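User: What would this chain look like folded?
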Amino acid sequence: RFFDGIDKNDITDSPFKGVYEVITYNPIDSMLISEDGQYLIQGDVVNIKTRSLIQKSSKVKNLKLALINTIKDSDKIIYKAQNEKYQVHVFTDVDCPYCRKLHNNIGKMNDLGISVKYLASPLASLHPKAQAKMQKIWCADDRNQAMDDYNDSGTIVDVSNCDNPVADQLEISKQLGVTGTPAIINTLFKFIAFYSQHHLETLSEHWLQPDPLFFLSTFLPGDIIGGIIFFFGYLYLRSVWLKKKSID
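Assistant: Here's the prediction, encoded as structure tokens.
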């Protein structure tokens, strides 16, 4: 389901006059489309007066939150903090190097009061053997120990295949728009370079305040960096033009 079968309830007004926000479901996202349906806006739209992105509806965040909540805790690998203050869901790939860095810091995260709930998102294009390994881990009697053993020494638990949720969680990750790991989902929509020790130390203070759904990523995507550079470049050129106009 993308453009096909869009319901009228999937179309809402936006702050941009003559432009509507349209919800899509595979992956769950929204886009801005002109009133006549001929033009689609790709990228961010900035309010020049406030210098902020235009506010979209909360429907996408609510849909993603509802989807993540369909996954039972019994299908996750949970590292629970003793004095829990926050919970994060982490879509992980056991062969992802940054996922290993995150896992090496999981004790520190627990000390900060952050409980970690692992979900499976093996990236076949990068790590073609990861899904089979993760199915073994999810089939282990002690999933946490199996996860620790593979992270620490590359040892895969010797168990028979079982009915496991790895493939289902991978499909959910795609519907949520996860394209990299570790993808950390909580109640705030931010990007952070998670492998940084500085970010780990300031995580609970700055990045886990209650708000709608959020993804932490291992990197700030290049298109966002490009957009930031373009935006501030535009503001600079506009200020120069206004100054020249006032002089003239």
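The longest helix spans residues 222-247. If you want, I can go into more detail on any region.
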